Amino acid sequence: ELEIAKYNIVAHPKSCFTMIIPELLDQMKAAQPETKSVILCGIETQACITATTLDLLEMGLDVHIPMDCVSSRSNFDRKVALERLKQSGAFLTSCEAIILGMAPDAKHPKFKGIQKLVMEPSLDTGLNL
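Given the sequence above, the corresponding C-alpha cells read:
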C-alpha cells in the first residue's frame, strides 16, 4: 500500500491507456493553471506512458520521463517506447537529474535535504542506450 491519501494524492481510475482524463485535467488546471511541463513516471511504458506522453505533447506541454522511473513487462518494449517518445519530443532523463534540478544550487535552502535523496545510486535500468 502506497498510502497516497497521506500525501493528498488522489487516485484516478481509468479504463484507457492515457491518464489525460477529464478529472485529472480539471485537478491539474485547478492546482497549477500555469503548468508548462510534466514529469511522467509509471508502468507499461509502451502503453500508458506512451499514450499519456503523446497526449501531453499534443497539449503543448513539455514531458520529462525519468527512464529509471518507468517500466514495461519486457525491456525491449520499454526501449522501443522510450525511443519513440524521444523522437516525438519528450525529454528522457533520470530521477537523479530531476531531483537535483529542483534545487540546482548548493546554496538553495532545500539542497541538503534533496541531496540526501540521491546519495545512493539508482539500480541499473538495463536499458544500455
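The mean pLDDT is 89. Try to locate this feature in the C-alpha cell string yourself.
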